[in-house]
């Protein structure tokens, strides 16, 4: 049965996630499509429609390939496929950095057109005014500090954060800025383990780790990495819980062989003139 995506009573709110600081870890995964959201909804607290969708499903080299329209289309699909999880949609690069006014307009569009519970944006001190403005407009915001995929080109690649004193100090400033601006939680990505653990103890909002620390208040992975569907490089911090790539390759090879040998379709997959043969 399709989930009742329209009943707000069933949803885990951003406020409920905020209260999970120091408690049972918050289980988060990315989701981009209706069927995957349906499969994950019963197992996670939070589904992130990450701008990683641009790379994972659309084949872009970086997350800079994501657009507002792309995020909204995938956000709508994930909302339709879930009833319980708190759904957070990423704000794509270019949709919020310029001014708080731009950020509020984009966040309103995302929430208005998808019905998601919150938005996420990358950055700390530099986007604190944007976070505060979106929160003041009544939209919960998840922050994202540490390694920020939207900045990998300007940063010279995927560089782990927290390896120099200067960088650790910057991470503290970012975490404090995001907390003070009113975010309900913050993703810490690609950061030295001890630094991520210390940041988790330092701020009062839940930290969600990815390539960070087991001491974070929750964890997130990209769904395609977690189930072994990723065709290109898989980051060190990913644990693969399944090997769907092999399952799909095996299925495709069997299908191709059966079509070529005229084994498929067989009698069970074709229609005769008798109506009761049409039952699925
Ligand atoms: O876009 C994304 O999938 C993310 C997660 C990796 C946190 O931001």
Q: Assign the CATH architecture.
A: Alpha-Beta Barrel
CATH superfamily: Phosphoenolpyruvate-binding domains
Give the strand order of the largest sheet, numbering strands 1, 2, ... along the chain: 1-2-3-4-5-6-7-8
Mean pLDDT: 96
Low-confidence stretches: none
Strand content: 5-15%
Hetero groups in this structure are: 3-methyl-2-oxobutanoic acid
Kindly name the structural category.
alpha/beta
How many structural domains can be distinguished in the coordinates?
1
Radius of gyration: 21 Å
User: What gap, in angstroms, lies between the N and C termini?
Assistant: 17 Å
Secondary structure tally: strands: 8
Per CATH, what is the topology? TIM Barrel
What share of the residues lie within helices?
Answer: 25-40%
Relevant terms:
single chain; 280 residues; alpha/beta; TIM Barrel; 8-stranded parallel barrel; 11 helices; 38% helix; globular; binds 3-methyl-2-oxobutanoic acid; Pyrv/PenolPyrv_kinase-like_dom; magnesium; Pyrv_kinase-like_dom_sf
Walk me through what this model shows.
The chain starts with 13 loop residues before the first helix and ends in a 20-residue tail after the last helix. Helices cover 38% and strands 13% of the residues. α5 (100-114) links the parallel β3 (86-90) and β4. An eight-stranded parallel barrel has the order 1-2-3-4-5-6-7-8, surrounded by five helices. It contains eleven helices and eight strands. With 280 residues, the protein is α/β, with parallel strands linked by helices. It has a single domain (14-242), classed as Alpha-Beta Barrel (TIM Barrel). The mean pLDDT is 96. The structure holds 3-methyl-2-oxobutanoic acid. 3-methyl-2-oxobutanoic acid is lined by residues 30, 48, 50-52, 90, 144, 187, 189, 210, 220, 222. Residues 30, 48, 50-52, 90, 144, 187, 189, 210, 220, 222 line the site of 3-methyl-2-oxobutanoic acid.
